[in-house]
């Protein structure tokens, strides 16, 4: 699973950058104290994330791969990988007709997947994405998808198989300035509905919010704008991984765009 996710992301980055109208690839580094939702134990955790976004003639792509390593050797997030990929096909670009209406900038059909390493989790997320016209925002989008399970299950050493569900996600980017200093507020909020695992146990609906505020350090020291960002990411996760655990964690955040 780890090799599959890494290889897919590298291939997508290469293909997207070659055919893209625009592309952005960045390395994110985060550090904070996260909870193991199954034991309640907190552990200092470092997450290195390769993130890519691009647009081409028929739509856009977005993916990230997280390498996660905590300070506790407990079989949870010990040198683990997690990745998500979404490709959206713009109805405006495909049809040649302007799909904007009022505050709606465009509508697209999305295909995506989520994959985790040690837990052998695999989810498919087909759905609909709406891009919104919002003054001041670099982007504002809403994504509604199915959440289709293809987990290996406990018998094969993975997380329990689950019934299918659905997801709602809102993502945004909002730049602003204070004097000569430039800042960005980015992030997303997702809701994934409840489901049931292979043992008949309820997996609770969760809300995961990850807003990030960054200062453009590169611009401040005369580098190219939006190359080196320094800031704070806040993770709020209600019913983390479908458990009763809720966490609210500030993280030190560094972002380097290639």
Helix-strand blueprint:
Layout: H1 2-19, E1 22-35, E2 42-56, E3 59-70, E4 80-90, H2 91-95, E5 104-116, E6 122-124, E7 127-132, E8 139-149, E9 165-178, E10 181-192, E11 195-196, E12 202-203, E13 206-209, E14 212-216, H3 217-220, E15 228-238, E16 247-257
Antiparallel strand pairs: 1-2, 1-16, 2-3, 3-4, 4-5, 5-6, 5-7, 6-8, 7-8, 8-9, 9-10, 10-13, 10-14, 11-12, 13-15, 14-15, 15-16
Quick structural gist:
With 258 residues, the chain is mainly beta. The protein has helices at 2-19, 91-95, 217-220; strands at 22-35, 42-56, 59-70, 80-90, 104-116, 122-124, 127-132, 139-149, 165-178, 181-192, 195-196, 202-203, 206-209, 212-216, 228-238, 247-257. Strands 1, 2, 3, 4, 5, 6, 7, 8, 9, 10, 13, 14, 15 and 16 form a 14-stranded antiparallel sheet that branches. A two-stranded antiparallel ribbon has the order 11-12.
Describe the structure.
It is a single chain. The protein contains three helices and 16 strands. It has 258 residues and is mostly beta strands. It is globular, with a radius of gyration of 19 Å. The protein starts with a helix and ends with a strand. Residues 1-7 and 9-17 have low confidence and may be disordered.
Instruction: Give the N-terminus to C-terminus distance in angstroms.
Output: 27 Å
Helix content: 10-25%
| Largest sheet: number of strands, sense, barrel closure | 14 strands, antiparallel
Which stretches of 5+ consecutive residues score pLDDT under 50?
Answer: 1-7, 9-17
How many runs of DSSP E, i.e. beta strands?
Answer: 16
What is the CA-based Rg, rounded?
A: 19 Å
Compute the number of helices: 3
Q: List the secondary-structure elements in sequence, H or E.
A: HEEEEHEEEEEEEEEEHEE
Overall spatial form: globular
Q: Please identify the oligomeric state.
A: single chain
Mean pLDDT level = 92
The assigned structural class equals mainly beta
Tell me the β content.
Answer: over 45%
